[in-house]
Amino acid sequence: MLVAERQQKIVGLVNERKSIRVTELSQIFGVTEETVRRDLEKLEKENKLTRSHGGAISTDPADSMEIPYFQREVINIKEKKDIAFEAVRQVKEEDKIILDASSTAWYMAKALPDIPITVLTNSIRVATELSTKNQITVISTGGSLLSKSLSFVGPLAEASLDSYHVNKAFISCKGIHLKNGISDSNEQQAQIKRKMIECADTVYIMIDHSKFGVQAFSHINNLEIIDYIITDSRVDDEILQQIEDKSIHLVSI
């Protein structure tokens, strides 16, 4: 296979899968990992992809589109539920918390016991789930509705957050990158998550292994703002060590 043909196929794979690792590309094309890294370096200079820790991610503009809620809900279900259950353990009576509009936050809402806490959210599904729990006070941000994610965003939603201060924010995202921080596929979601983080004393990021090394379309914030990362056990040990070196608490389930 010619070099140009291999590189064209690499771009196709990255856009199809959204992210892929160097080791996998090496096996697919029967070349060394060093050769793959040279290919990725060249393709990044041509703005055809973005290199990440151990691989590459897509720069296809379609990635900026939100994935419909019903699709996100069935991606990595076990990991998301386990992460959500662990996040629930971090919630104490009388806490005031923020839950974003992620599917992991919805699983967390389902698992929360009926205890006296206050939950601020921009998610219709989270608010609806918590409406049956009599001791939980639910506050919705309001704002412009995104139908795909059933969430409120925009200036009104962001402005409403200025009125509140919470103990803990539980946020999910599309990517976490050691150099470039946390990011989301939708700019409006990134903006409101940035505001949520500003409201909180303690920030918990809830992400499964597939989000590490990924840089999505819209930047949310740097890693320094994170207090805890709750994730599953399939994250590479090297990445976990680099995260811990940044004084971020890791909860791996």
UniProtKB/TrEMBL annotation:
TM ranges: none
Span of domain HTH deoR-type: 3-58
Pfam families: DeoRC, HTH_DeoR
GO-annotated molecular function: DNA binding
UniProt KW keywords: DNA-binding, Transcription, Transcription regulation
Entries under InterPro entries matching the protein: Carb_Metab_HTH_regulators, DeoR-like_C, DeoR_HTH, NagB/RpiA_transferase-like, Tscrpt_reg_HTH_DeoR_CS, WH-like_DNA-bd_sf, WH_DNA-bd_sf
Signal peptide segment: none
Alphabetical list of SUPFAM superfamilies matching this protein: NagB/RpiA/CoA transferase-like, Winged helix' DNA-binding domain
PANTHER family reported for this sequence: AGA OPERON TRANSCRIPTIONAL REPRESSOR-RELATED, HTH-TYPE TRANSCRIPTIONAL REGULATOR SRLR-RELATED
Protein name: DeoR/GlpR family DNA-binding transcription regulator
Organism: Tigheibacillus halophilus
